[in-house]
Amino acid sequence: MLDYLLQIIPTIAEGLKVTVSLFCIVWVLSIPGGILLALLRLSKIPFVDKIIEAFVYLMRGTPLMLQILFMYFALPIITDGAIQMDDSTAAVVTFVLNYAAYLCEIFRGGIQSIPRGQYEGAKVLGFTYGQTMRTIILPQMFKRVLPPLANETINLLKDTSLVYVLAMNDILRITKSIVQRDFDISAFLVAAIFYLIFTFILTNIFNYLEKRFSVYDE
């Protein structure tokens, strides 16, 4: 049993390249995307807030797997081949759009939780709207939204397994192929341990950040 596990661990670990790279790219792109969407939703530009609200509703109201399949299979058909992406590009674009929509609501709530007096104080000091958001509002917002941001980050790690529908060699697809080949479910245990390790790391990072940047003084 131990020999078999030692034999399949390197093979399953090869899927880390896809899983980790997808996770990192989406996480890096979806955060500024979510901030931009949140600011647009809070803007007073006519119709913009309604358009962003409809987009967020669409992305949050439909399954992520359906969105992946639509982006990869349906979009080329609808556009008559004008828009066609490879599997990795389709996965990244879909994940970024989906998670930017979720983060939009988190960031919007965080921005709205900042007392109005801070905006007025910044205006008295001569700060522009951009300077106010960049130097005063957004830093405080990040401190307040760390717990829900941590949840979405962990969800993203687990959701990367959905790319198996595009035949991308992530951890889950490689694990499934090993189980089908060897008729042994031990590979599922190895995959679960990989996910648990990364979840443990992410959880501890965010726990540290929450303590380090706590909104409330002890």
Automatic annotation (TrEMBL):
<keyword id="KW-0472">Membrane</keyword>
<dbReference type="GO" id="GO:0006865">
    <property type="term" value="P:amino acid transport"/>
</dbReference>
<feature type="transmembrane region" description="Helical">
    <location>
        <begin position="185"/>
        <end position="209"/>
    </location>
</feature>
<protein>
    <submittedName>
        <fullName>ABC transporter permease</fullName>
    </submittedName>
</protein>
<dbReference type="InterPro" id="IPR000515">
    <property type="entry name" value="MetI-like"/>
</dbReference>
<dbReference type="InterPro" id="IPR035906">
    <property type="entry name" value="MetI-like_sf"/>
</dbReference>
<feature type="transmembrane region" description="Helical">
    <location>
        <begin position="90"/>
        <end position="107"/>
    </location>
</feature>
<keyword id="KW-0812">Transmembrane</keyword>
<dbReference type="InterPro" id="IPR043429">
    <property type="entry name" value="ArtM/GltK/GlnP/TcyL/YhdX-like"/>
</dbReference>
<feature type="transmembrane region" description="Helical">
    <location>
        <begin position="20"/>
        <end position="42"/>
    </location>
</feature>
<dbReference type="Pfam" id="PF00528">
    <property type="entry name" value="BPD_transp_1"/>
</dbReference>
<dbReference type="GO" id="GO:0043190">
    <property type="term" value="C:ATP-binding cassette (ABC) transporter complex"/>
</dbReference>
<keyword id="KW-0029">Amino-acid transport</keyword>
<dbReference type="GO" id="GO:0022857">
    <property type="term" value="F:transmembrane transporter activity"/>
</dbReference>
<dbReference type="InterPro" id="IPR010065">
    <property type="entry name" value="AA_ABC_transptr_permease_3TM"/>
</dbReference>
<keyword id="KW-0813">Transport</keyword>
<comment type="similarity">
    <text>Belongs to the binding-protein-dependent transport system permease family.</text>
</comment>
<feature type="transmembrane region" description="Helical">
    <location>
        <begin position="54"/>
        <end position="78"/>
    </location>
</feature>
<keyword id="KW-1003">Cell membrane</keyword>
<feature type="domain" description="ABC transmembrane type-1">
    <location>
        <begin position="16"/>
        <end position="206"/>
    </location>
</feature>
<keyword id="KW-1133">Transmembrane helix</keyword>
